[in-house]
Amino acid sequence: MSFDTLGLSPAIVKNLARQNYQTPTPIQEQAIPAVLSGKDVMAAAQTGTGKTAGFTLPILERLSNGERVKSNHIRALILTPTRELAAQVAESVHTYGTGLDLTSAVVFGGVKINPQMMRLRQGVDILIATPGRLLDLHQQNAVNFSQVEVLVLDEADRMLDMGFIRDINKIIKLLPKTRQNLLFSATFSEDIKSLAKTLVHNPVEISVNPANATAVTVEQFVYPTDKNKKPKLLSYLIGHHNWQQVLIFCKTKHGANRLTKHLEADGISALAIHGNKSQGARTKALAQFKEGKIRALVATDIAARGLDIDQLPQVVNFELPHVAEDYVHRIGRTGRAGSTGQAVSLVCADEFKLLVAIERLSQKIIPRQEIEGFDAANPLPKSHDIRPFKAKKPKKPKAPKVEHHDGQRSSELASGHKPPGSRRSQGKPGKDNPYAKNTSNQRRRKPASGPKS
């Protein structure tokens, strides 16, 4: 199958040919026709399988035959969790849409907002944005959503992990009710499925890989060692194997900075990329890494989402992630678009539970290799037999609540509020409660006798 059989215009197919894209990937084969049909779509595929083109190509095709965009309006909105992913998607839109009478723009935080406001004044057909900056622009009346035809949530699971659910809900409420909704991600958690129930309507569900599976093109290894030996072991691996381009993952920003300084001290050119870095510094570091000017790029999970580096050969997990699904995203930076790659993890005994969670998620025990001189003083326990995931039992439906009438207390047995037909509750006798029984031992008074005759 070729791209010209999927319903794309000759201009778009020509742009793809310039990038040497001749055959669509499995996710593109299924997603492009579904999006072109105007239906809502939920698509899950491994990182590096062409998800971005799966929605940008049909959106370009659909918008090329429509009304012109008005000033400060947009026709398609693509939300991403990070600046790097937003920039990557924007680059794809520009590349695939060359020669089309369509405009696009990308907006995110960390840079001045005024140039973005000026760009939106003329109107933009396709806007790629991070949620926070988009809401800032809307509050300043820089963007109007009344013309939106398509909404895309890219890497939706990461957006929820980063706490964007409130911002996403705010944005959804501002959009026209009649629109096409597309959810694309490497994984779909239960939270994503819950969000989808309120967002998509009768969607086409696409999954070209088992849930949370790792790519077969990525060779994986674990190097057991002690925590304090990890920096030296990493320097040894880079030097011994002559790695010229390696992406390294740390859990924290400060940890990334410390590791970068260690690598520089060992004569390995390295830069860090994380949320505390300015957008200019992050863009410069990524450009130098792609151009081969530095050998190592040390990143956190949030900053690395969206990094697209052609034929990246090596990924190193200096520390295992707390969330097993993030491991899938990390190693998905290599082995992309059919190329092969290698992912190694430096694991100490304290991370054994994290390793078990990753192996259970991927349903695969990762091979281990030991290096002399870096043996663990605290041995890493052997992996257990992998237990398959069990389907969660459906929750029992809650009992219906008793109808509550105005003026009635929450308890049906509260004093003075017995159900109809029952006697009033007992209490102290008196004029405030004439229905209460007189339980005292006092003798009842005889009725007064009438006048004697």
Automatic annotation (TrEMBL):
Pfam families: DEAD, Helicase_C
SUPFAM superfamilies per record: P-loop containing nucleoside triphosphate hydrolases (SSF52540)
EC number per UniProt: 3.6.4.13
Domain spans labelled Helicase ATP-binding: 32-206
Basic and acidic residues compositional bias, start-end: 400-409
Keyword Nucleotide-binding recorded: yes
Enzyme class, UniProt record, top EC level: hydrolase
Cellular compartments per GO CC: cytosol
SMART domains: DEXDc, HELICc
Official protein name in the record: DEAD-box ATP-dependent RNA helicase RhpA
Motif (Q motif): 1-29
UniProt GO MF annotations: ATP binding; hydrolase activity; nucleic acid binding; RNA helicase activity
Keywords carried by this UniProt record: ATP-binding, Cytoplasm, Helicase, Hydrolase, Nucleotide-binding
Residue ranges annotated for the Helicase C-terminal domain, each copy included: 217-379
Biased composition (Basic residues): 389-399
GO biological process: response to temperature stimulus; ribosome assembly
Reactions catalysed, as given in the entry: ATP + H2O = ADP + phosphate + H(+)
All copies of domain DEAD-box RNA helicase Q, residue ranges: 1-29
